[in-house]
Specification:
globular; transmembrane helix; Phospholipid phosphatase; PAP2/HPO
C-alpha cells in the first residue's frame, strides 16, 4: 500500500526557500510596505464581487476552513491513519497541523494587523495576518497531497486527488477575500506558512522514516 520504493525526495531545500519567502512576506506586511498595499489593492480589484451567488457560495464554503472544522478533520484523519497502522504518517499529520496553527497564533499576536475596515460579510474576530483559514487549509490539504502521493498507487486517481486538495485550499483562501475579512496578503501569507510547515514536516518524515525504510528494503 505504501509507496516507499520511490517516495518524493527530501524537501529541505524547498522548505528553506519557502521559509525565506514567508519571512520576507511577513516582514513586508508588518512594516506596512507599499509593495503589500499595491498587492492588496490590485488583488481586491480583481477578486471583490457583488455577485450574490458567489458571495453565498463563499459564506458556505469558507466554513470548511474554520478552526473547529480543521481540528475535527485533522483528528478524523489522524484516527484513520492509526487504525490502518500508519503511525509515522499519523504523527506527521499531527505534527504539521499543531506546528502550523500554533505558529500562526503566535505570529498573529506579534504582527497585530487589523482586519480590513470594509464591511465584513461574515463574522470574524482577532488579528488579520496571517489568515488562519488559509494556514489551516494549506497545512491540512498539503498533508493530504503528501499522503496521496505516498499511499495511492493509481497515477490517474493520484492526480485527481492532488488537484482536488489544492483547489480546496485555494478556494478557502479566496472566500476570505470575497467576504472582506482578510486582505489578499493575509491569505498569501497563510498559504506560504502552511506550505512551509508541510515541506518541513515531510523532510522529517523522509529522513526519519522513508529513507531508513528504503535503505532497509534495499538490504533485503
Amino acid at each position: 500500500m505504501i509507496n516507499t520504493k520511490r517516495p518524493p525526495k527530501d524537501t529541505l531545500v524547498a522548505s528553506a526557500i519557502f521559509t525565506v519567502i514567508f519571512a520576507l512576506w511577513a516582514y513586508l506586511v508588518s512594516s506596512s510596505s507599499q509593495v503589500i498595499h499595491s498587492f492588496d489593492k490590485t488583488m481586491n480589484g480583481i477578486i471583490y464581487t457583488s455577485n450574490t451567488s458567489l458571495i453565498n457560495f463563499a459564506k458556505t464554503f469558507t466554513n470548511l476552513g474554520n478552526t473547529s472544522t480543521i481540528v475535527v478533520e485533522t483528528i478524523i484523519l489522524f484516527i484513520i491513519l492509526l487504525v490502518f497502522k500508519q503511525y509515522a504518517y499519523a504523527w506527521f499529520t499531527a505534527g504539521v497541523m499543531i506546528c502550523a496553527n500554533g505558529f500562526n497564533w503566535i505570529l498573529k499576536h506579534v504582527v497585530q494587523r487589523p482586519r480590513p475596515t470594509v464591511r465584513h460579510l461574515v463574522y470574524a474576530d482577532g488579528y488579520s495576518f496571517p489568515s488562519g483559514h488559509s494556514v489551516g487549509s494549506a497545512a491540512l490539504f498539503g498533508v493530504l497531497i503528501v499522503l496521496t502521493i505516498l499511499l495511492i498507487k493509481s497515477t490517474s486517481l493520484k492526480t485527481i486527488l492532488v488537484i482536488i486538495w489544492a483547489l480546496f485550499s485555494l478556494t478557502i483562501g479566496y472566500t476570505r477575500i470575497v467576504l472582506h475579512v482578510h486582505f489578499p496578503s493575509d491569505v498569501m501569507g497563510g498559504w506560504l506558512e502552511g506550505i512551509t510547515f508541510v515541506l518541513l514536516g515531510y523532510s522529517f518524515l523522509y529522513h526519519f522514516y522513508l529513507e531508513p525504510k528504503l535503505i532497509e528494503e534495499k538490504r533485503i
